[in-house]
Every structure is written in C-alpha cells, then in structure tokens.
Specification:
The chain is an alpha/beta fold and 264 residues long. It contains ten helices and ten strands. Helix 3 runs parallel beside helix 4 and helix 8 runs parallel beside helix 9. The chain starts with 13 loop residues before the first strand and ends with a helix. The N terminus is likely disordered.
C-alpha cells in the first residue's frame, strides 16, 4: 500500500463509523491517523438488561461451572461491573476455564485479572464451538452474552452433552437519536461518506432500521466494509453490498482490509 500525495493512505476519504458511541473512538482514531475524515453516528446503543438477576445468580454460583464463555468486550465489562456490585472478587472465578471469542475480549478479561484458556483461530461462534468440542463434553458451561445473539454456541455444545446456561449481560437497541443525523448525512452529497464500517450484525440491522428500509438504497457510490463473514451475511440478507470484508475479524483486521482496497 503506497501513500497518497497528501502523505496518508486514507486522505480525502470520508468514513462513517457506526459503532456504539463509547466504542467508536478506537476505530475512529486509527482511521483518522491514516488520513480519513471521520463521521461518527452510532447505529447501536448498549443498555443494561431488563434484570441482572440471572447473571447475578450465576456469578454467585460459579463453583458449579467448568467453563465460562465470553463473546464480546461488552459482556466482559458487564460481568466486571456485576462482580464489583456483588462484592465478588474476580479471583473467585479463577478455577474456571475461560474462552474468549477474540483478542479484544481476551484483553478485557485479562484486565479483570483472569486467565483465558482459549481464543479460537477464527473469531466467530462456530470457531468457539470447534475449539471446545472435545473439551466441553459433559461439562457445565456459563455463556455470558447479549440479549439477542446467535444460538450457535449453546445449541452445538448441548449436542455434545455440555450443560449450558445462557445469561444476558446487556442488550443492544437502535439509538433513535441517530435517525435524523444519519438521513441528513446520507442525503447530502457534500457530507455523504465514501465508506461505512459495520462491526456486527446488529449494526447492519440497525442501520437499515434507521434509514427505514432494506438494501438497494439510493447510495450507489457508498462502499460497505464488514468486520467478518457473519456481518457480511447480514448485509447480504438485507440486500446491501459487501465491498470490503476483513480477513481477520477484528478492528485492526477491518482497517487492514480498508487499506488493501484503497480504490474507493
């Protein structure tokens, strides 16, 4: 990848970052450092679940479990907050073998002072299952996740005889405050992004909801960048294009994929 005449590879490129407001800064900062003009409009809002009772109950009974699976940084943060609220020391979970879906989740778990036993080679639910297939037979598994999530992990682990308890740590909702701003930006030729980043299936579905429709929207010049195959499948399901897909399903992987396809 060679740099442009302006000295940075993404100079002159407007990129819309649709992550939750408190999470957008990392992606935005890295893209901005590469010369991109950043527009931040959250497509997703993270909220507490309607009740923490199931999660709190599970955290009070961690001695009953063999494995703990965490599939997002949001889940780790919620778990850490509830441990603090319940005055349970993180080392109470030290006996658990912990699986993290990817490096960012692993890093968040490590910050709690806990060790991660498994990070799958591909950062998707299917790879988590493959990594645990021989290790979770007959074991008690606690899966901490969002209210709405794919059922691949509990379904497939139960097939091999694991006892899986699924508890909600947070929920994702459509940020209604983004609706007007998003429509103004998308319909203004001087502000319309050259590229939009999608970091989860929820961001895709909420983007469609905020614009009031599925794909085939009148934005032919706008490119869509996906963090991985699950997010890409949701884009296609809603008739959106997938112009860029990260080979490594992480924020650094997404940035690398954007740089590799500089012709926007």
């Amino acid at each position: 990848m060679t740099e442009t005449r302006r000295g940075k590879p993404l100079s002159g490129v407007r990129i819309l970052v649709g992550r939750a407001r408190h999470q957008a800064s990392v992606l935005s900062a890295k893209l901005k450092a590469l010369g991109a003009e950043i527009i931040e409009i959250p497509f997703i809002e993270i909220r507490p679940p309607q009740t923490y009772k199931p999660l709190d109950s599970a955290l009070k009974r961690t001695q009953e479990y063999d494995w703990l699976i965490l599939t997002s940084v949001n889940g780790v943060e919620a778990l850490g907050q509830r441990l603090k609220h319940l005055r349970i020391k993180p080392d109470t979970l030290a006996h658990l073998r912990i699986a993290a879906i990817g490096p960012a989740t692993r890093e968040a778990i490590t910050k709690l002072g806990l060790k991660v036993a498994i990070v799958p080679p591909r950062y998707v639910a299917e790879s988590v299952v493959e990594s645990l297939r021989r290790k979770a037979i007959g074991k008690r598994v606690l899966l901490v996740r969002a209210k709405v999530a794919r059922d691949v992990i509990p379904r497939e682990l139960r097939k091999i005889g694991a006892q899986v308890d699924v508890v909600e740590a947070y929920e994702t909702v459509v940020p209604r405050s983004s609706k007007r701003e998003l429509r103004l930006v998308m319909n203004d030729p001087h502000r319309q992004p050259h590229l939009i980043t999608f970091t989860s299936s929820s961001t895709v579905r909420n983007f469609a909801t905020l614009l009031g429709g599925r794909g085939r929207l009148p934005y032919a010049e706008v490119k869509f960048a996906s963090i991985g195959p699950v997010t890409s499948a949701t884009l296609r399901e809603l008739d959106f294009p997938v112009d860029i897909e990260a080979k490594e399903y992480t924020i650094p992987g997404l940035i690398k994929a954007i740089l590799a396809t500089r012709k926007l």
